[in-house]
Amino acid sequence: MAMAASTLPVLLLLLLLFSLSSAAAAASPAGRSPCFTSLFSFGDSITDTGNQLLLAPDGVLGHCCFPPYGETYFGRQTGRCSDGRLIVDFIGTVNLAECKDYLSKSLILLGEIGGIDYNRAFFEDVAADEIIAIVPYVVAEIGKSIKQLVELGAVTILIPGNLPIGCWPGYLTKFWSPNKEDYDPLSGCLVWYNNFAQHHNILLQQEIARLQKLYPHTNLMYGDYYGSATRFHRHPEKFGFTGSAVVACCGGGGPYNYNESLICGNEGSKACAEPSTYVNWDDHHFTEAAYKIVAKDVLEGPFSTPRFNASCLVGRASDDGLHSAY
């Protein structure tokens, strides 16, 4: 299970890189990311900008391919699992071609990866210790993908960690607990599941550090999606999220607006009037407003290691509609 889901993104990426031959790059000063002229992104539904709409198996479309998905920015469904744009859409708005010395460089966004493996296992009631046991294998597959990309010529790769899954409405509904100790008092999120996500992230950072030493000419960057999201989960009002930080904007009812038998996109489900005031769009995807904050935090804030080269971010992600506590 973990192997198939984790290797699919890199197989697609290897095919694309081989056909385009566009991942050539040169070394950059230590501790700084270079400038880029192109962006490649592969991962799961957190990064899919519409492939599932075009490549649906047997013509069967997923629920993200139906209204009200896409309503905020596009005015129609595009295959993105949110009300509008994703993190990669905002990263892509940055003018990556301003630094003339690095015209041949590309930024590769690899992930996030692992979410599908873990979600499926948890929701199929696989024992917790068995799920914990697959984490090193998922991380190892990500490491193999990084190594293959570097050997093909990639130099700068942004590898995001997992988001705080204990804050997803789907998890909060399925794993509801009567014990207050099971919840973060600031965010209302499930502590154990967030700790699990952090366990994955710690192992991933260790793997990135190992590969960075193995390939010192590369820029292997860790994207701390978890750290960024934790800020607005714990203090949503500071970021303009006056609706809810744990309830889904779109769903089929219930305390967290998640109903397994009536998910967002199905006939009878309903979306909130103002998605930008909610963190969560559906059971395990953010709204455009939340994704935009994560993108800004990774590009311009302290949530990438090493930090992005500020001189390259000439055309920064626009701030219209962006809730920010900076």
TrEMBL record:
<keyword id="KW-0732">Signal</keyword>
<dbReference type="InterPro" id="IPR001087">
    <property type="entry name" value="GDSL"/>
</dbReference>
<dbReference type="InterPro" id="IPR036514">
    <property type="entry name" value="SGNH_hydro_sf"/>
</dbReference>
<dbReference type="Pfam" id="PF00657">
    <property type="entry name" value="Lipase_GDSL"/>
</dbReference>
<dbReference type="GO" id="GO:0016788">
    <property type="term" value="F:hydrolase activity, acting on ester bonds"/>
</dbReference>
<keyword id="KW-0325">Glycoprotein</keyword>
<protein>
    <recommendedName>
        <fullName>GDSL esterase/lipase</fullName>
    </recommendedName>
</protein>
<feature type="signal peptide">
    <location>
        <begin position="1"/>
        <end position="26"/>
    </location>
</feature>
<comment type="similarity">
    <text>Belongs to the 'GDSL' lipolytic enzyme family.</text>
</comment>
